[in-house]
Structures are given as structure tokens and as C-alpha cells.
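Bench notes, bay 3.
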Amino acid sequence: MLNHQKLVVMASLGMLAGCGSDSDDPARFSLAITDAPIDEATQVVIEFTAIELKPRNGSSVVINLASPQSIDLLTLQNGETTTLIDQHTIAAGEYDWVRLAVNAEFDNVYDSYIVFDNLQHELFVPSGAQTGLKLNQGFTVAEGQTARFVIDFDLRKSIVEPVGQPGYFLKPTLRLIDLQQVGALSGEIAEARIINLCQGEKLGAVYVYSGVDVTPDDVDGRDPEPLTSVLVYRDDDRYRYHVGFLAPGNYTAAYTCDAVNDLPESDQPLVFTTAANVSITANATTTLNFD
């Protein structure tokens, strides 16, 4: 068990096809990080220190990183990832959970921090040294196989500025994705739509919801909550978006210029100009344009 003053984040893993019995023959485990971004911030840096896996039968296994990895999550947008561990040998069999250890305390060290308007603020994870975020599923790794997963930090749901505190709270909202079963959604936003609806330099964002015919809403802790969201970016005089790491299935996608006003844990009247149903297929990118 990791027993120190560090954030502990617990995330579930979807079931990976393979045998379910424990074995002395090794398997391999790879884990990467990606990010669903936040408006206004120019850096969100997290310092990762270790990964802990819990076999169903036996004590947990701690994988200490060779050195702490400071990762700016805002560099990991539009399907970009960075690897925490790659092809690490583990025992084949069933596992109950995976745990990340992160340095994120109000201690004036600034190992984890966020930057707004060129000002650096410490990040703190409430109860991070205890249970963190727990999702109750497990995963299985077959003999001789590699389990590949990516964890998506959804910063739009996570960053909170508490009253009377020296920095910001990071309440991680994570998606854990099996890379063997994943698709993507991408497309363009019509320039006229952005010019007519958006103000200043902001280009808006695309929100994605699980299921079809969802009435879009902001991030406020109440249904319907977006599964994820991405910022629109300009590329070759076109306005594009890309949502990576979606499990196969049916979704509702919606565009808004008001994402900058979306504050977690509070209800904001965002205006969504368009919503459309879309189907995602594994190992393929679905195109949806907002004309």
C-alpha cells in the first residue's frame, strides 16, 4: 500500500479479453495519460511518482517510476498521450484496481500546479492520501499478452477554486480506456458559426454525452453530464476538433461558444447551438461537422 503524503487516485479498468485464472507466466501492462482540456489555464502540471496494482489474489504491487514525472496535461490534447509505464512485466491473471500516486499538496513545493494569467498556483487533491477516486471494476491480463490503457484527466470537471485556500483543488474525473477497443470523433466547425456566436479569441468547445438524443447541459454534477469535452482549435484556416479514446457505441455531440463559462459544481446557462447523434466504431474515426 502506498503510505505517504501523496495523492492516490484509483481508477477502474474495463475487462480485457483473455483468460481469467491466475498464472505464474508473465504478462505486460502499459499505461498512458491524456487530457480533456480546460479554458483559460496555460499549464496544468501533475507530478506522478508511482503506480500500484492489486491482484485479486495477493498483496498489491507498487511500480515506482524511475524518477517523478512532471506532466503538463494541457500538452496532451486532441488524442496526444504520454506514457507512464510501457510493457511492464506483471503476473497474468485478475486484478481489482490500479492506483496512481501523485505529489499534490499545499506545501509551497509546487510539484503540481496550475497557471492562470502567468501566475502559478499549487494544486491539492482533497483526501488524496486516502482513497482518491475509486471505480469498482477490475481487469484481466492473459498469459503472454499486453494490457494497454490510457487515463483521461477531464480538467473541465476537476479544477475548483475553494474560498480561503492557498491554491486550487484538483478533483480528478478520470476515464479509463482499453486501447484495444477505442474509436474517435473529429470534424470542423463552420467559420460563420464561430464568427457570429463566439466573442474574443475563444473558439468554443464540443461536448460529448453517452447515449442518443441527449439535451446538452453544462458540467454541474447533475445529469446529463458530458462524458468528455474538447476545445476547438484553428488549423490551416479551418476550425477543427478531435475527441479521442471513445468506446464503441452511440453518443450525442454538441457545440457551444460558452465553454469558458462552464464551472464545475455550479449550474451555468450554456447555449448549445447544435446537437447531433453519432455512432463510434472501434479502430476508426467518425467525422461530424457542425455547419
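Next record in the batch:
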Amino acid sequence: MLKIGYFADGKWSHEAFKKLILDKDISIKFICVRFDSEDNTLLNYCNQYGIPYLKHFNINSPEFFSELNQFDCDLFVSMSFNQIFKDSIINLPPLKTINCHAGKLPFYRGRNVLNWVLINDESEFGITVHYVDSGIDTGDIIAQKIYPISDDDDYFKLLEKAYIGCADTLYLAIRQFVENRVQSFPQSKIHELGFYCTQRIAGDELINWNQTSRDIFNFVRAICSPGPQARAILNNKIIKINKCYFIPGAPSYKGIVGAVVGKNGRSLLVKTLDSTIEIADYEYDGVIKVGDRFDCK
């Protein structure tokens, strides 16, 4: 029986829990949730299955270390948890601590990875289970699965894929511990450096129209709902853009970047750095006319 402590939050962790709780070779000794948010689903799971429900503002504190030590876990598992594990907690269980990350490590370390892979026009994204070490998403890789990205995908669709993919990949990795067949390897075997993605903040959602149509298409789909959605300024008013279409074969020509050059029903055709793009799903309080110009400053 593998005894695990589960540091978890959100739908990512819910899907994985459903798999873990059904495995008779795995015992979840506690669930520790984020201190700064509520997760009633995990609380209900704890009540349903008699699992201790923990929450602490500093998981690395001496008093919390003592509390965790009493559970005698073999392995700590992190899924969408938001505190940094220090060495004392990482090394407390004999099998150490692992994390599931929705990125193809050693690339796409850090935050908002699903947004960044779309912004970067990637053709695939990865889900990685790795050992936790003193760095950020830098530990040895235990399991990794790759998923394709098509032009039909956006942030919402990638999230849905990742919820299930993270659960599947994490469960497969934990089964390796159950069966004593873990074969991890350093991230440097894939690439010596990799790269890190910075957390996106308010203001990062503004469209830069001085980009190609492809770049703008990727940007809009990368932060569509349930993300913040792309924003722009038109006639001194904010327009919120949730969906646009890349137009294959659209002529490339010089013109006024950010100008509305056509309308198709409610959809707008906007001049970009190279061609035109169709803005299909948006919120705007006002009338938009051909010839209007988006603020490109």
C-alpha cells in the first residue's frame, strides 16, 4: 500500500482524485488545499472518504512539518498547489515529493503555460510529472505525455484536455511508485537550458495590432474565456474580443494597421501587419463602422 499526501486545488486535482481513490494499492492519508482559496469539492471528498482536510498559510513551518510527519506518508503529491516546497517538506517522505505540471518540461516551466503555448503557435503541449526540487519545475522527469494542438483549439479546449491529461499522467506516474519501477531522468537530457514562462497579469491582455494575423489569432485564442479575453481600444472605448478567425490565403498588403476594412454581419475585418483577420465574437458598447481604427499605441 502506497501512502500519499495530496497537496491539491481545483479541477485538475479533482480528476486525479477520482482515479487515485479507486486504486486499492493507494491510500490518501490527507489532502492539503490552498490557503487562499476554497475548494468545496475536495472538502466533500474528504468528508465522504474520511480523509483529513488540511490548510495552512505556511506548509514549511515547523509546526506543520510536525503535523505532516504524523501521517507517515511514503510520497507527497502536488497538483495545482501554490506554495513552494522547501527541502524539509520535499524530503520528509521516503519517496520524496512529486508534482504534475501542464507543460512539456524542460520547456514551459512556470506559470500560465497553456496560454503561452498557444501564443507561441505550438503544435503540441506536454504534461509532465517530475520530482520537486529547490528550483521551479526543474526536477527529474518521471512521466511525460504529449498532446497535439490544432487551429481549432483555444484556451478553453486545452484546459479540458489538460484536466484529463494531468489526471491520467499523474496516475500513471504514481503507479510506477506502487510497482517500484520508477525510472526518472534529468531534464538536461532533453535540453540543457529549457525556458521559463512568466505569470500573466492585468494589462497583458491588450492586443498589439502591429503583429501578423497569425500572431493575433494565436493571442486571442490563448486568453479566451475562461481567461481574461483579449482587449483593445476603439473610439476611446474598450472592446473585449473572445474569438477571431485566421484567414488562410488572405492577401498581404501595406495599409493602416488596426483599421476596420470590412464587415460580415457582425464580424469585423481588421488590417494587421501583414493581412486581415476576422473578429467574430466580441463585446462593445457602440457602433463600429468600416474605417474606424483600433488604437495601436
